[in-house]
Amino acid sequence: MRSLEDQLAAYAAYHRDARNIVTHFIGIPLIVVSLLALLSRPAWGAGWLPFSPACAVVIVSALYYLRLNLRLGAMMLALLLLCLGVGAWVASLSTAAWLSVGIGGFVIGWLFQFVGHFWEGRKPAFMDDVTGLIIGPLFVLAEACFLAGGLCELQRNIEMRAGKVRNGRA
């Protein structure tokens, strides 16, 4: 398995336009919540701990993130659990509402992604490497940490490999 830095640098190479990164701050969470909402049916079990296909996706994803980096993996686990909770709530709505919110959010999330990549002038990373689909949410978290002044060494290393974030096309 490639290192955290390797995977984030490869993904970042497709995301150097600041506008594209902003669209990812909106689009990727929408996609994750919508996907987990759609996968929250059917749910088995009763009470406070139902199990659904969404739970399996969260478990596998969290294990992957934790293996890459314990600190970022723990933050991703917390965010995924929050998204899972929202998704489960959406799945508890009527079938029409569940599908409308789930499919609508998924489509809107992808529209944000493709607008960002139009501005970037480059196709999405997952079109060349399918691991971009699981690295995308981690990239958004890392970028949020960078904006908050954290993970400075990781940010420097990624920028050395992928280039600095720019305003507008190169």
UniProtKB/TrEMBL annotation:
InterPro entries per record: Mpo1-like (IPR009305)
Pfam families: Mpo1-like
Residues spanning the membrane: 21-39, 45-65, 97-118, 130-151
GO aspect biological process, one term: sphingoid catabolic process
Domain of life: Bacteria
GO cellular component, one term: membrane
Key words of the record: Membrane, Transmembrane, Transmembrane helix
Protein name, as recorded: Membrane protein YGL010W
Organism: Serratia marcescens
Lineage of source species: Bacteria, Pseudomonadati, Pseudomonadota, Gammaproteobacteria, Enterobacterales
